[in-house]
């Protein structure tokens, strides 16, 4: 029997590395305190005395802020400078030793120098320590490239240890003893570094494969209510945010001196800032879910700037620390709203340096506020004020500029910032995944169908309508080939002669993965409407059914590729393949897939119908043999309903497209105005024919839908049962279209589907396409789809009876005439199904 795999939680090498990193953070804090202290007390090149005991210790009185700040700045420049050396150059400079070994050597060296510095007390010893610390950081980062992810964790431990020690010392010995406590902490760090370094050299000299414990990167978080970071070409507000963080941390030491609170004050500020940063970072993805992520970053910068400026007026430790910590919360939120790939170190280092330079250069002074009150402004206060004002100004610019939408939607962003986002349609019962994905105001609409059915034509028409008449931002795209990577994959797929079926399936999925990650999701996150010509169903139809590959495999790779993203609405344009081929003939040479034989395309068509039949809540099936304007009107009405449900369009009122033009009476313009005032989508006078009407088609007499009836939407004829593939019984009558795999895995079948949901129609025939009822549920989830479906059955007297496409939120066809028509239709379908069953029985199937 095979041995059970070892289940060690932490590799000992990880613990050693964690010890080195924690001691490294202690060393960093000590370097800041001691360089400032030694430089300020004795000058840059003189040895310093330890402070005398007691609150009246002379150290502070004799202390030179400028020299202390200069010494601190030199340390930070050394640390930051080494961090900024490019990796390639660093590799050439540092001897080629195993990384664990070099980290160990550097840890020991740093420990020894720190130990010496704590005894010899010259600022330049600290600078050597700073250099070694910086090299050690590089070595640890080479071991664990993500080692500085969420740095507040191990830094927090070190800062808390410093707070505890300095507080204890100051309680018993006065504020001057805080520095003595830091010297003790430095010795502890030195011992820890030497011990962990020796272990690293002796035991773990090779590269550590296990890595530091990670909590996972934020970009993969997909929980409900979490908004992914949103990429933007130049995330300069993030750099400013990091610079502000650097400035706050750099100013903590001079601030401690200025407030005369001893090193416990410094540790207190650092702990609170780290805590604030951590809280903000963790809060980030769920903060202001209704606001675009670039805007969150911009507002965070503005808020953090204002708080920092306010901090410049504060003369008391706790309030200063609270201001700094709250600014750090906003910094955490702001940087988390952007992808984390850009270099944080640059912004951070620049912020550190600028803040300290300001302390060095700015004069202090006293401003008389009244005869009795004067405000003593230290250089530290001035630095805080200037840094804060710069950040505030940058925040204002960012709020106005740092969003691909410019200022468009700023008001909406503010208004909806803290409202939960409208959930997109649930994908739980879908063919495409189980992710519950939510978008603030975006919607994902997909056109599916065979080659040449008119998808691109309809996608373009819909986009024109949504942009021109609804004022929405729309992204029209396609698969394969919606992105640059996709265009190359498309060429491989369609221009060549031979691609093996599995390779074909993987290439389509690869195109989709890139398409969703780089184009669809970012656009949805920006609140745009994405219209895609083809999506996952094409793979299920062409690769699973057409190439006869495993449905599960094809579905799974696409589900994985897209992280389960499901469209809000899929419009299936259904047309006989021969008719579609006729349309394409004029276009010239057919591509590799269009050249497939008729049987292949018949299988594809039947697969599409099965998919739509199994999940009626998510599909709109349209007879694509109609005039393109009639199709466009049907699609438009359905899309408007879906956009309303998802908050993309206002709920109230109706777009003029839903009002039969003839019903608008003689005073059309008035009707439109009032409908627009009610929140309806503005529509120009020359609106295209509505509701599936072909041009010139007879319209209902205006009286039929006068008054309030105007808003009513009736199921367009275009969405009635789709005609069957050639030679087959209509799907609505229980037959599989020609070419359907008779016993293959039903495409729409879900193992866990409950009897009540929208797929019950497939019970009679495995394909599920026999139910032509397309019901888009009100609430957009599976449960209401099932409820809507059941409701229809109740109305019409039996499962699968209804043959109407009912769109979400639209008034159900409630009139006696509607019901009679539905019943008649249902009866015809029942009879057709019975006939088919009898025929099958006779054939012994
Ligand atoms: N309803 C329609 N009636 C007649 N012709 C149409 C209709 N819709 C589109 N066409 C024409 O059919 C041809 C194919 O249309 P279109 O390119 O939109 O189809 P498609 O489904 O996107 O094709 P493909 O799958 O190859 O991308 C075009 O010449 C277009 O003008
Ligand atoms: C997305 C997708 C597409 N196909 C096929 C279907 C068509 O024949 C071509 C795409 O061409 P179009 O002119 O852009 O419609 O690719 C497929 O087989 N599988 C898929 O997933």
Automatic annotation (TrEMBL):
<dbReference type="InterPro" id="IPR039430">
    <property type="entry name" value="Thymidylate_kin-like_dom"/>
</dbReference>
<comment type="function">
    <text>Phosphorylation of dTMP to form dTDP in both de novo and salvage pathways of dTTP synthesis.</text>
</comment>
<keyword id="KW-0418">Kinase</keyword>
<dbReference type="InterPro" id="IPR027417">
    <property type="entry name" value="P-loop_NTPase"/>
</dbReference>
<dbReference type="Pfam" id="PF02223">
    <property type="entry name" value="Thymidylate_kin"/>
</dbReference>
<feature type="transmembrane region" description="Helical">
    <location>
        <begin position="68"/>
        <end position="85"/>
    </location>
</feature>
<dbReference type="InterPro" id="IPR018095">
    <property type="entry name" value="Thymidylate_kin_CS"/>
</dbReference>
<dbReference type="GO" id="GO:0006227">
    <property type="term" value="P:dUDP biosynthetic process"/>
</dbReference>
<dbReference type="GO" id="GO:0005524">
    <property type="term" value="F:ATP binding"/>
</dbReference>
<feature type="transmembrane region" description="Helical">
    <location>
        <begin position="321"/>
        <end position="338"/>
    </location>
</feature>
<feature type="transmembrane region" description="Helical">
    <location>
        <begin position="179"/>
        <end position="204"/>
    </location>
</feature>
<dbReference type="GO" id="GO:0006233">
    <property type="term" value="P:dTDP biosynthetic process"/>
</dbReference>
<keyword id="KW-0547">Nucleotide-binding</keyword>
<comment type="similarity">
    <text>Belongs to the thymidylate kinase family.</text>
</comment>
<keyword id="KW-0472">Membrane</keyword>
<feature type="transmembrane region" description="Helical">
    <location>
        <begin position="15"/>
        <end position="38"/>
    </location>
</feature>
<feature type="compositionally biased region" description="Low complexity">
    <location>
        <begin position="778"/>
        <end position="789"/>
    </location>
</feature>
<feature type="binding site">
    <location>
        <begin position="449"/>
        <end position="456"/>
    </location>
    <ligand>
        <name>ATP</name>
    </ligand>
</feature>
<keyword id="KW-0812">Transmembrane</keyword>
<feature type="compositionally biased region" description="Basic and acidic residues">
    <location>
        <begin position="815"/>
        <end position="845"/>
    </location>
</feature>
<keyword id="KW-1133">Transmembrane helix</keyword>
<feature type="transmembrane region" description="Helical">
    <location>
        <begin position="97"/>
        <end position="116"/>
    </location>
</feature>
<feature type="transmembrane region" description="Helical">
    <location>
        <begin position="296"/>
        <end position="315"/>
    </location>
</feature>
<dbReference type="GO" id="GO:0004798">
    <property type="term" value="F:dTMP kinase activity"/>
</dbReference>
<feature type="compositionally biased region" description="Low complexity">
    <location>
        <begin position="756"/>
        <end position="770"/>
    </location>
</feature>
<keyword id="KW-0808">Transferase</keyword>
<keyword id="KW-0545">Nucleotide biosynthesis</keyword>
<dbReference type="GO" id="GO:0006235">
    <property type="term" value="P:dTTP biosynthetic process"/>
</dbReference>
<feature type="transmembrane region" description="Helical">
    <location>
        <begin position="154"/>
        <end position="173"/>
    </location>
</feature>
<feature type="transmembrane region" description="Helical">
    <location>
        <begin position="232"/>
        <end position="252"/>
    </location>
</feature>
<dbReference type="InterPro" id="IPR018094">
    <property type="entry name" value="Thymidylate_kinase"/>
</dbReference>
<feature type="transmembrane region" description="Helical">
    <location>
        <begin position="382"/>
        <end position="400"/>
    </location>
</feature>
<feature type="transmembrane region" description="Helical">
    <location>
        <begin position="122"/>
        <end position="142"/>
    </location>
</feature>
<feature type="transmembrane region" description="Helical">
    <location>
        <begin position="350"/>
        <end position="370"/>
    </location>
</feature>
<feature type="domain" description="Thymidylate kinase-like">
    <location>
        <begin position="447"/>
        <end position="631"/>
    </location>
</feature>
<keyword id="KW-0067">ATP-binding</keyword>
<feature type="region of interest" description="Disordered">
    <location>
        <begin position="650"/>
        <end position="845"/>
    </location>
</feature>
<dbReference type="GO" id="GO:0005829">
    <property type="term" value="C:cytosol"/>
</dbReference>
<feature type="transmembrane region" description="Helical">
    <location>
        <begin position="264"/>
        <end position="284"/>
    </location>
</feature>
<protein>
    <recommendedName>
        <fullName>Thymidylate kinase</fullName>
        <ecNumber>2.7.4.9</ecNumber>
    </recommendedName>
</protein>
